[in-house]
Amino acid sequence: MSEDVTPVVQKLVDGLQLSEADWARLIGSSDLIALGMAADAVRRRRHDDRVTFVQVLEVPVDGEQLEGPIPKQTGEVRVTGCPASHATAVAAVRAVVAHAGAVPVTGFAFADLDAVSGHDRNRLGTLLGDLRAAGLAQLGEVSAEGLRDPDGALAVLRSSGVTAARVTLGTATGDVALSLIRQVASWEGVGQVCRCLAPLPRVGPSPPSTGYADLRQVALARLLVDNIESIQVDWSRYGPKLAQVALTFGADDVDAVPVAGGENQGWRRSPGEEIRRNITGAGFTPVPRDGRFEALDVDPGSERRAGH
Protein backbone atom coordinates (compact mmCIF):
# COMPACT_ATOMS: atom_id res chain seq x y z
CA MET A 1 0.00 0.00 0.00
CA SER A 2 1.13 3.54 -0.74
CA GLU A 3 3.07 5.12 2.09
CA ASP A 4 1.07 8.30 1.51
CA VAL A 5 -2.23 6.85 2.72
CA THR A 6 -1.15 4.01 5.01
CA PRO A 7 -1.11 6.08 8.24
CA VAL A 8 -4.55 7.52 7.43
CA VAL A 9 -6.01 4.10 6.68
CA GLN A 10 -4.65 2.80 9.99
CA LYS A 11 -6.51 5.62 11.73
CA LEU A 12 -9.70 4.53 10.01
CA VAL A 13 -9.12 0.92 11.05
CA ASP A 14 -8.54 2.06 14.64
CA GLY A 15 -11.69 4.19 14.62
CA LEU A 16 -9.79 7.44 15.14
CA GLN A 17 -10.93 10.85 13.94
CA LEU A 18 -9.18 12.18 10.85
CA SER A 19 -7.38 15.52 10.90
CA GLU A 20 -7.44 18.12 8.15
CA ALA A 21 -4.09 16.78 6.98
CA ASP A 22 -5.50 13.24 6.85
CA TRP A 23 -8.43 14.33 4.69
CA ALA A 24 -6.09 16.19 2.38
CA ARG A 25 -3.80 13.17 2.09
CA LEU A 26 -6.62 10.83 1.11
CA ILE A 27 -8.28 13.24 -1.29
CA GLY A 28 -4.93 14.16 -2.83
CA SER A 29 -3.85 10.57 -3.44
CA SER A 30 -3.77 9.43 -7.07
CA ASP A 31 -2.93 5.85 -6.11
CA LEU A 32 -6.21 4.22 -7.12
CA ILE A 33 -5.05 0.73 -6.18
CA ALA A 34 -4.07 1.83 -2.66
CA LEU A 35 -7.36 3.66 -2.17
CA GLY A 36 -9.28 0.65 -3.48
CA MET A 37 -7.48 -1.80 -1.19
CA ALA A 38 -8.10 0.46 1.80
CA ALA A 39 -11.78 0.93 0.95
CA ASP A 40 -12.21 -2.81 0.44
CA ALA A 41 -10.73 -3.47 3.88
CA VAL A 42 -13.13 -0.98 5.47
CA ARG A 43 -16.20 -2.42 3.71
CA ARG A 44 -15.22 -5.99 4.62
CA ARG A 45 -14.92 -4.97 8.26
CA ARG A 46 -18.47 -3.64 8.10
CA HIS A 47 -20.11 -6.23 5.85
CA ASP A 48 -17.71 -9.19 5.60
CA ASP A 49 -18.17 -10.67 2.10
CA ARG A 50 -21.89 -9.85 1.78
CA VAL A 51 -23.17 -7.71 -1.09
CA THR A 52 -26.85 -6.87 -1.15
CA PHE A 53 -28.84 -6.10 -4.29
CA VAL A 54 -32.45 -5.25 -5.09
CA GLN A 55 -34.53 -5.87 -8.20
CA VAL A 56 -36.76 -2.87 -8.83
CA LEU A 57 -40.01 -2.39 -10.71
CA GLU A 58 -40.51 1.31 -11.50
CA VAL A 59 -43.89 3.03 -11.74
CA PRO A 60 -44.17 6.69 -12.85
CA VAL A 61 -46.16 8.83 -10.44
CA ASP A 62 -48.06 10.50 -13.28
CA GLY A 63 -48.35 7.48 -15.55
CA GLU A 64 -50.50 4.40 -15.83
CA GLN A 65 -50.84 2.33 -12.69
CA LEU A 66 -49.63 -1.23 -12.38
CA GLU A 67 -51.53 -3.96 -14.15
CA GLY A 68 -51.20 -7.70 -13.78
CA PRO A 69 -49.26 -9.60 -11.12
CA ILE A 70 -46.01 -8.30 -9.66
CA PRO A 71 -43.11 -10.49 -10.89
CA LYS A 72 -42.05 -12.78 -8.06
CA GLN A 73 -38.42 -11.63 -8.21
CA THR A 74 -39.42 -8.01 -7.46
CA GLY A 75 -37.88 -6.74 -4.25
CA GLU A 76 -39.11 -3.17 -4.52
CA VAL A 77 -41.75 -1.22 -6.41
CA ARG A 78 -40.47 2.34 -6.88
CA VAL A 79 -42.67 5.33 -7.65
CA THR A 80 -40.64 7.66 -9.88
CA GLY A 81 -40.96 11.30 -10.84
CA CYS A 82 -42.08 14.45 -9.05
CA PRO A 83 -45.68 14.56 -7.81
CA ALA A 84 -47.78 17.57 -8.77
CA SER A 85 -49.26 17.92 -5.31
CA HIS A 86 -49.57 16.48 -1.82
CA ALA A 87 -52.76 14.67 -2.82
CA THR A 88 -51.21 13.26 -6.00
CA ALA A 89 -48.27 11.79 -4.09
CA VAL A 90 -50.45 10.15 -1.45
CA ALA A 91 -52.94 8.80 -3.99
CA ALA A 92 -50.16 7.31 -6.13
CA VAL A 93 -48.58 5.53 -3.16
CA ARG A 94 -51.92 4.24 -1.94
CA ALA A 95 -52.76 2.80 -5.38
CA VAL A 96 -49.35 1.19 -5.89
CA VAL A 97 -49.31 -0.30 -2.38
CA ALA A 98 -52.73 -1.85 -2.99
CA HIS A 99 -51.39 -3.57 -6.10
CA ALA A 100 -47.91 -4.46 -4.78
CA GLY A 101 -49.13 -6.48 -1.82
CA ALA A 102 -46.21 -7.59 0.34
CA VAL A 103 -43.57 -5.97 -1.89
CA PRO A 104 -42.32 -2.71 -0.32
CA VAL A 105 -43.17 0.51 -2.15
CA THR A 106 -40.63 3.35 -2.16
CA GLY A 107 -40.28 6.60 -4.03
CA PHE A 108 -39.78 10.35 -4.32
CA ALA A 109 -36.90 12.71 -3.67
CA PHE A 110 -36.78 14.81 -0.54
CA ALA A 111 -36.21 17.98 -2.59
CA ASP A 112 -39.32 17.34 -4.70
CA LEU A 113 -41.54 16.77 -1.66
CA ASP A 114 -40.06 19.86 -0.02
CA ALA A 115 -40.97 21.90 -3.12
CA VAL A 116 -44.50 20.46 -3.22
CA SER A 117 -44.83 21.51 0.43
CA GLY A 118 -43.80 25.08 -0.37
CA HIS A 119 -40.54 24.62 1.56
CA ASP A 120 -42.59 24.64 4.75
CA ARG A 121 -41.20 22.01 7.11
CA ASN A 122 -44.49 21.61 8.97
CA ARG A 123 -46.33 20.89 5.73
CA LEU A 124 -43.50 18.62 4.64
CA GLY A 125 -43.71 16.68 7.88
CA THR A 126 -47.46 16.25 7.34
CA LEU A 127 -46.88 15.02 3.77
CA LEU A 128 -44.24 12.54 4.90
CA GLY A 129 -46.55 11.26 7.62
CA ASP A 130 -49.39 10.85 5.13
CA LEU A 131 -47.12 8.96 2.73
CA ARG A 132 -46.06 6.66 5.52
CA ALA A 133 -49.70 6.08 6.47
CA ALA A 134 -50.45 5.30 2.80
CA GLY A 135 -47.82 2.56 2.92
CA LEU A 136 -44.59 4.15 1.66
CA ALA A 137 -41.79 1.93 2.96
CA GLN A 138 -38.95 4.40 2.36
CA LEU A 139 -38.26 7.74 0.74
CA GLY A 140 -36.18 7.33 -2.40
CA GLU A 141 -33.40 9.82 -1.79
CA VAL A 142 -32.06 12.87 -0.01
CA SER A 143 -29.70 14.81 -2.27
CA ALA A 144 -26.81 16.57 -0.58
CA GLU A 145 -26.49 18.84 -3.60
CA GLY A 146 -28.41 22.03 -2.90
CA LEU A 147 -29.54 20.94 0.57
CA ARG A 148 -29.23 24.12 2.62
CA ASP A 149 -30.35 22.76 5.99
CA PRO A 150 -29.23 19.14 6.45
CA ASP A 151 -30.00 19.16 10.18
CA GLY A 152 -33.55 20.33 9.50
CA ALA A 153 -34.03 17.76 6.76
CA LEU A 154 -32.88 14.92 8.99
CA ALA A 155 -35.03 16.23 11.83
CA VAL A 156 -38.22 16.23 9.76
CA LEU A 157 -37.50 12.68 8.60
CA ARG A 158 -37.00 11.53 12.18
CA SER A 159 -40.14 13.26 13.45
CA SER A 160 -42.27 11.83 10.64
CA GLY A 161 -40.91 8.32 11.10
CA VAL A 162 -39.83 8.13 7.45
CA THR A 163 -36.42 6.82 6.47
CA ALA A 164 -34.62 7.38 3.16
CA ALA A 165 -32.99 4.66 1.10
CA ARG A 166 -30.01 6.79 0.11
CA VAL A 167 -28.15 10.05 0.24
CA THR A 168 -27.08 11.12 -3.24
CA LEU A 169 -24.72 13.78 -4.54
CA GLY A 170 -26.96 14.96 -7.37
CA THR A 171 -24.94 15.66 -10.49
CA ALA A 172 -21.72 16.49 -8.61
CA THR A 173 -18.37 15.07 -9.70
CA GLY A 174 -14.73 15.80 -8.97
CA ASP A 175 -13.88 18.31 -6.25
CA VAL A 176 -17.52 19.34 -5.83
CA ALA A 177 -18.50 15.74 -5.12
CA LEU A 178 -15.66 15.32 -2.65
CA SER A 179 -16.77 18.48 -0.85
CA LEU A 180 -20.29 17.05 -0.58
CA ILE A 181 -18.92 13.73 0.66
CA ARG A 182 -17.11 15.59 3.41
CA GLN A 183 -20.31 17.45 4.31
CA VAL A 184 -22.26 14.20 4.54
CA ALA A 185 -19.55 12.77 6.80
CA SER A 186 -20.28 15.62 9.23
CA TRP A 187 -24.06 15.12 9.38
CA GLU A 188 -24.88 13.96 12.87
CA GLY A 189 -27.33 11.07 12.99
CA VAL A 190 -27.65 10.69 9.22
CA GLY A 191 -27.19 6.93 9.44
CA GLN A 192 -30.30 6.66 11.60
CA VAL A 193 -32.55 7.84 8.78
CA CYS A 194 -30.54 7.16 5.59
CA ARG A 195 -29.33 3.66 4.79
CA CYS A 196 -26.87 4.23 1.90
CA LEU A 197 -24.63 6.82 0.32
CA ALA A 198 -24.71 6.70 -3.49
CA PRO A 199 -21.56 8.65 -4.40
CA LEU A 200 -21.89 8.51 -8.20
CA PRO A 201 -24.18 10.88 -10.15
CA ARG A 202 -27.71 9.59 -10.64
CA VAL A 203 -27.86 11.36 -14.01
CA GLY A 204 -25.14 11.78 -16.61
CA PRO A 205 -22.61 14.46 -15.63
CA SER A 206 -21.21 16.94 -18.11
CA PRO A 207 -18.49 16.36 -19.08
CA PRO A 208 -18.88 12.59 -18.62
CA SER A 209 -16.87 11.06 -15.79
CA THR A 210 -14.25 8.37 -16.34
CA GLY A 211 -14.04 4.89 -14.85
CA TYR A 212 -10.98 5.97 -12.90
CA ALA A 213 -12.80 8.96 -11.43
CA ASP A 214 -15.90 6.90 -10.61
CA LEU A 215 -13.97 4.20 -8.77
CA ARG A 216 -11.88 6.77 -6.91
CA GLN A 217 -15.07 8.52 -5.78
CA VAL A 218 -16.57 5.24 -4.55
CA ALA A 219 -13.40 4.37 -2.62
CA LEU A 220 -13.12 7.81 -1.02
CA ALA A 221 -16.80 7.71 -0.05
CA ARG A 222 -16.24 4.45 1.82
CA LEU A 223 -13.07 5.72 3.47
CA LEU A 224 -14.34 9.14 4.50
CA VAL A 225 -18.00 8.51 5.39
CA ASP A 226 -18.28 6.37 8.50
CA ASN A 227 -21.72 7.60 9.62
CA ILE A 228 -23.67 5.79 6.87
CA GLU A 229 -23.77 2.02 6.75
CA SER A 230 -23.59 1.23 3.05
CA ILE A 231 -22.08 2.54 -0.17
CA GLN A 232 -24.37 1.95 -3.14
CA VAL A 233 -23.89 1.80 -6.89
CA ASP A 234 -26.71 1.92 -9.46
CA TRP A 235 -26.76 -1.11 -11.77
CA SER A 236 -29.13 0.41 -14.34
CA ARG A 237 -27.18 3.67 -14.55
CA TYR A 238 -23.61 2.33 -14.54
CA GLY A 239 -23.99 -1.17 -15.90
CA PRO A 240 -22.80 -4.55 -14.66
CA LYS A 241 -19.09 -4.05 -15.39
CA LEU A 242 -18.53 -0.88 -13.39
CA ALA A 243 -20.90 -2.06 -10.67
CA GLN A 244 -18.88 -5.25 -10.30
CA VAL A 245 -15.55 -3.44 -10.06
CA ALA A 246 -17.03 -0.88 -7.65
CA LEU A 247 -17.66 -3.74 -5.21
CA THR A 248 -13.90 -4.17 -4.87
CA PHE A 249 -13.53 -0.41 -4.23
CA GLY A 250 -15.82 -0.18 -1.21
CA ALA A 251 -19.41 -0.54 -2.48
CA ASP A 252 -21.57 -3.17 -0.78
CA ASP A 253 -25.06 -2.58 -2.20
CA VAL A 254 -26.28 -2.66 -5.81
CA ASP A 255 -29.43 -0.69 -6.56
CA ALA A 256 -31.91 -0.77 -9.44
CA VAL A 257 -31.29 -4.22 -10.88
CA PRO A 258 -34.12 -4.66 -13.43
CA VAL A 259 -36.86 -7.15 -12.72
CA ALA A 260 -36.82 -8.45 -16.29
CA GLY A 261 -34.32 -8.51 -19.15
CA GLY A 262 -34.84 -8.83 -22.87
CA GLU A 263 -37.41 -11.17 -24.31
CA ASN A 264 -36.66 -14.87 -24.69
CA GLN A 265 -33.49 -14.73 -22.59
CA GLY A 266 -34.47 -17.43 -20.10
CA TRP A 267 -33.88 -17.32 -16.37
CA ARG A 268 -30.15 -18.12 -16.61
CA ARG A 269 -29.60 -14.85 -18.48
CA SER A 270 -32.03 -12.82 -16.40
CA PRO A 271 -30.84 -9.70 -14.52
CA GLY A 272 -31.22 -11.55 -11.21
CA GLU A 273 -28.90 -14.32 -12.31
CA GLU A 274 -26.46 -11.90 -13.93
CA ILE A 275 -26.07 -9.82 -10.76
CA ARG A 276 -25.52 -12.97 -8.72
CA ARG A 277 -22.79 -14.14 -11.10
CA ASN A 278 -21.12 -10.74 -11.07
CA ILE A 279 -21.10 -10.48 -7.29
CA THR A 280 -19.77 -14.01 -6.96
CA GLY A 281 -17.16 -13.30 -9.65
CA ALA A 282 -15.92 -10.31 -7.64
CA GLY A 283 -15.34 -12.59 -4.65
CA PHE A 284 -18.45 -11.75 -2.61
CA THR A 285 -21.65 -13.45 -1.49
CA PRO A 286 -24.81 -12.12 -3.18
CA VAL A 287 -27.73 -11.34 -0.85
CA PRO A 288 -31.01 -10.28 -2.51
CA ARG A 289 -32.96 -7.74 -0.48
CA ASP A 290 -36.20 -5.82 -0.61
CA GLY A 291 -37.05 -2.12 -0.46
CA ARG A 292 -36.78 -2.14 3.33
CA PHE A 293 -33.24 -3.58 3.10
CA GLU A 294 -34.48 -6.88 4.52
CA ALA A 295 -32.76 -9.96 3.12
CA LEU A 296 -34.77 -12.23 0.85
CA ASP A 297 -34.40 -15.96 0.35
CA VAL A 298 -31.32 -16.80 -1.76
CA ASP A 299 -33.50 -18.86 -4.11
CA PRO A 300 -34.02 -16.49 -7.09
CA GLY A 301 -37.43 -17.99 -7.76
CA SER A 302 -38.76 -17.66 -4.21
CA GLU A 303 -40.59 -14.87 -2.45
CA ARG A 304 -39.88 -16.26 1.01
CA ARG A 305 -37.93 -14.01 3.32
CA ALA A 306 -34.74 -15.21 4.94
CA GLY A 307 -35.28 -16.36 8.48
CA HIS A 308 -39.09 -16.55 8.20
Taking the alpha carbons of the first and last residues, their distance comes to 43 Å
CATH topology: TIM Barrel
Report Rg: 19 Å
The second-level CATH architecture is Alpha-Beta Barrel
**Going across the major beta sheet, what is the strand order?**
1-2-3-4-5-6-7-8
Amount of beta strand: 15-25%
Biggest β-sheet description: 8 strands, parallel, barrel
Number of helices, counting only DSSP H or I runs of 4 residues or more: 12
Spans of at least 5 consecutive residues with low confidence: 300-308
Q: What is the CATH top level name?
A: Alpha Beta
What's the overall average pLDDT, rounded? 90
How many beta-strand runs?
Answer: 9
Q: What does this protein structure show overall?
A:
This protein is of the alpha/beta class and 308 residues long. It has 12 helices and 9 strands. The chain has a single domain (6-288), classed as TIM Barrel (Alpha-Beta Barrel), CATH 3.20.20.70. The radius of gyration is 19 Å and the shape is globular.
Write the layout of secondary structure elements.
Layout: H1 6-13, H2 20-28, H3 32-47, E1 50-60, E2 76-80, H4 86-100, E3 105-109, H5 110-116, H6 121-134, E4 136-143, H7 150-160, E5 164-168, H8 174-185, H9 190-193, E6 194-198, H10 211-224, E7 230-234, H11 235-247, E8 253-258, H12 271-281, E9 285-288
